Amino acid sequence: MSPGGDRVRVAILGQANWSRHLARLLQRHAPDLVDVVALPGSAAATLLWRREQTPGVFLRVGYRPGAPTARGIAFDLLWAQIRSAFPKATGVYYWLGTDLMRATQDASRGRLRGAFQASFRDHHLAVAPWHLMELEAIGVEAAYLPLPYELPTGSASPMPSQFAVLSYLPAGRFAFYGGTEVFALARQFAAIPFRILGAERPREDAPPNVEYPGRLPSTDAIFQASSVLLRLTQHDGVGGTVLEALAHGRHVIYTFPLPYTNLVEIGDTDAAAGILGRLLNEHQRGVLGINNEGRRYVLATFDETRLSRALAEKLIACAAPASAAT
User: Is the confidence at residue 125, as pLDDT, over 60?
Assistant: First the structure.
């Protein structure tokens, strides 16, 4: 609770899907701690005229400060106006992944604008532990706080009788998400089905054993029918498909160091093939079991209730100095 005992009002601004996602989870799991509203994108401008509830915290999600793009400049101007209109409110940035990657690229090219340095006076959160060093390299001190994520909590299904691989390759970002490596592995393991989430239409260069199930009302069944998740992305937060796969007790080959997954270097198809071959061999010998250690880890570490309340408590702590001064 805030120093006065009242809930802290939080306005979430920025990337639309994640703003609404966080608002929904905070409303569900921490209504006693925060009074939250999502105002993604340009909807944030409503704060300049809707003054009946003054936020104690502005949580900025996924829009990096100082971006040289037209949208970035426009959002920074809006952010500056809002911060000026509510000078007692605290600003908190929640870095998701792609925003950090692009900020790092902008920094290396000398393209970061003044709004980036202005953000140093605010608080910063990172969704992945490996983001802390990346942020430090561009001058940002941040705290690690995993993104609350809705995960299946029922009993894990037995491993499927047919060994199958699952991957996430969204349309328009095929190479970034390791599509070249996934297709190379599909050609190497031609007798194994490789199923692709994130794109509804097959690519013309897809190997014949690559399947596109298209849009699904729920991903539970396809995770249950898979033995291994391949997530070979070039940059990442903690990938949602990784968390889902672990929650289903499946094995994971990943390019970032998460416990109970199999780590490979970005672009190292040979290493991924070696791990995939080992898992396939265990399946063929009937000894490939559920990844129970990974399942226990992810359900404990990424529990949506605990993380939602941890986020709410962190936002209250960030707001406390400003609240105490009023």
Answer: yes
